[in-house]
What we know:
single chain, 9 helices, globular, 6-stranded mixed sheet, alpha+beta, 5-stranded antiparallel sheet, 24% helix
Amino acid sequence: MKLIVEIQKQLPHYDLDISFTVEGETLGLLGSSGSGKSMTLRCIAGIETPTQGTIALNDRILYDSHKGINLPSRDRKVGFVFQHYALFPHMTVAQNIAYGLRGLSKSATHQRVTEQLKQVQLLELGDRYPHQLSGGQQQRVALARALATEPDVLLLDEPFSALDTHLRSELEKQLITTLSSYRGLTLFVSHNLEEAYRVCQKLLVLDQGKVVAAGDKQVIFDRPGTLAVAQLTGCKNYSRIQHINRYTVRALDWSCILQTVDSVLPVHTHIGIRAHQITFLDTLDQIPDQPNTFPAWVVWTSETPHRMTVYLKLREPPIDLDDYHLQAEVFKEKWERLKNRPMPWFIYLNSDRLTLLQP
């Protein structure tokens, strides 16, 4: 199974101009709001028409501007799950799932609908109407409807964003289970970095209608390459740099000198580290003569159910709450051991975790 997309589309604020191939994996599309993620899916599905380019699925051409080919959505073998379900309110759950099944006998349609209801754990709700279901149940019906036609490509456009936290978690587990037996290709649009990381094997990062990074998810997170990709993949700590030598830079926005593992090149303008990769040293014995180690003062903290975000000022006490250099994330158990220590604490910025960035 192989999907090749090479399209351009003129949009009000920028031009969508992307090229990528999906082959045998779940591809996550990341990017800020308005970056072109949803438009890309809509062009693949045939809901929107590119200005020019080609879309090919295996040996079938879905769209080719030069050859005048533009298959209608119903002939593309593409399933689409929308953010807000898009179920037909006057149809039952079973009728919604059966809607796209054409050319099957009544018994074959019933069997296909039953299989999908089982897969999404809604077998007892086939006779209900969408308004009688929870948001999570409605989205599972939408997933079952998209898969009932046995599409070659499944497009998921932020399918969990309208759900509360518990339902998101439950439906995400359901989706991962469903995709494990799905033989087609999946494109998954999300603005939730952790969600995309759990669901997808590869990532495509979009910015203003352009592909700015593509490949294995871990490689993109570990080595984003550019400042834009670092920001779009959730890196909260980055600083302008001044080159000192091949493996040493001054982090201008953090007021410190750092040793790097990678060679510092003229194209590098920034350095970054992710919030969870900052190390709090446990004993004073770790501090002497260790590079990239600095005294730090806690400026303020922000709490989530499981983690603390700790805002840190390096080298000297802060003047006010806006006077900080870095954000560090620690689990609550670690925070309990840290919080009563006298200031300054000492932190370590592991050179293996520092990433040099181009503009």
